[in-house]
Amino acid sequence: MSTKISKIGILTSGGDAPGMNAAIRAVVRTGLFHGLEVYGIMRGYQGLIEDEISVLNSRSVANIIQRGGTILKTARCKDFFEYEGRKKAYENLKKRGIGGLVVIGGDGSFRGAAQFAKEFKISCIGIAGTIDKDIQGTDYTIGFDTAVNTAVEAIDKVRDTMEAHDRIFIIEVMGRDAGYIALHSGIATGAENILIPEIKTNIDDIATSLQKKGKRKKLVNLIVVAEGDDFGGAEEIQKILIKKLPKAEIRVCILGHIQRGGAPSCLDRLIASRMGYYAIQCFLEGRKNVFVGIHNDKMNYTPLESAIKSKGHICDEWLKIVKVLAS
Q: Which residues fall within 8 angstroms of residue 287, CB to CB, at 6 or more apart?
């Protein structure tokens, strides 16, 4: 073992994502296999500050791979934004001899980990657990596949009602800053329009398109919108379209937090297990302060600071596909 780290902590931070438990399981069991002591930290950085830290063993993570959410809980933590909060967190790790920290979360969680590692003698390894798939450096993030499949299943059911009543439905999915869930679920369900934060929405073009389709007797139309769309989400878009299309029946369905819950998909369990395994390999190989990702089916290690400064971009090819298939 090329590192002096013998004890590590693990926490989940920010929004929960299906597959986090699979990642926790992989980190704990891989760490124990290599002779490391593994400590679970409850409620993310808040629990780290409040010393909610306990030893985990192999049985601690039994029968959790199929469960959604996170057994370690998660919370937002304003105190960790302050130096004094981070110092207290470090002292709680130091008194136990913990030299490494695995952080499962999104860009905000990584931002905190990067700052923490910079200020104190602690090596942080990140694993992306976010349904938004908005962190550059990996082709996958834990929870995205489950969330998008949940959205697809729900939209398919709504479409049955659309067809029965000849309605326009605006379905809002999660994605405050990133439109991947909307894009993928919209294409997979045959949406006529997909509205995402990355692309400015032209509401006049949408109204014109719906009018043309109405003249062709295409009365059933599906619009999938990310919550972070620049018009403010599905309900705001509905208000505008009702004014422009007074004769149309326009309904809204907001899927909300249903997308976060449920058993993780096979893909999410696999990538979570793989990332958790390689997070421990980082400690064994002496890697510090990196984010573990998968790119072209190979492990990819990105400095935490680089991973948090930029996000992935929506490929123009996908946008062209949407336009052609919706015509």
A: 125, 281, 301
Indicate the pLDDT class of residue 177, thresholds 50, 70 and 90. confident
CA angle (133, 136, 142) in 5-degree steps: 35
Q: What is the architecture, at CATH level 2, of domain 7-143+264-309?
A: 3-Layer(aba) Sandwich (3.40)
> Any idea where the domains of the chain sit in the sequence?
7-143+264-309, 147-259
Instruction: Centre a 10 Å sphere on the Cβ of residue 88 and count the other Cβ atoms it contains.
Output: 16
- pLDDT tens column, 226-243: 998 888 889 998 998 999
What are the CA-CA distances from residue 276 to residues 55, 74, 172, 195 (Å)? 18, 18, 32, 34
In contact, 116 and 99? CB cutoff 8 Å? no
Decide if pLDDT at 91 tops 90.
Answer: yes
* pTM of the complete model: 0.92
Q: How far apart are CA 271 and CA 294, in angstroms?
A: 8
Segment 201-204 long-range contacts (CB within 8 Å, at least 24 positions apart): 201/229, 201/230, 201/231, 201/237, 203/231, 203/237, 203/240, 203/241, 203/244, 204/244
Q: Does residue 5 surpass a pLDDT of 70?
A: yes
CATH number of the structural domain 147-259:
3.40.50.460
Q: List the catalytic residue out of 107, 132, 229, 268.
A: 132
Q: Please, which pLDDT band fits residue 2 given cuts at 50, 70 and 90?
A: very low
Active site residue 132: yes
What is the length of the chain?
327
Summarize the chain as % helix, strand, coil (round to 5). 45, 20, 35
Backbone φ, ψ for residue 298 (5° rounding): -120, 150
Q: Is 156 in contact with 190 (CB distance < 8 Å)?
A: no
Handedness of CA 259, 261, 264, 265 (dihedral sign): negative
